[in-house]
Amino acid sequence: MYGRLPVARQMSGMAFVSDDRPRQRLTDELNGAHYSCNSDEDTEDASETDMTKMDQEAESREDHQLEKQLQVYKEQLQQLKDGTNSEYLRRVAKLEKAMNLSIACAEAFRDYQVGRAENGCCAE
Question: pTM higher than 0.85 for the full model?
Answer without folding.
Answer: no
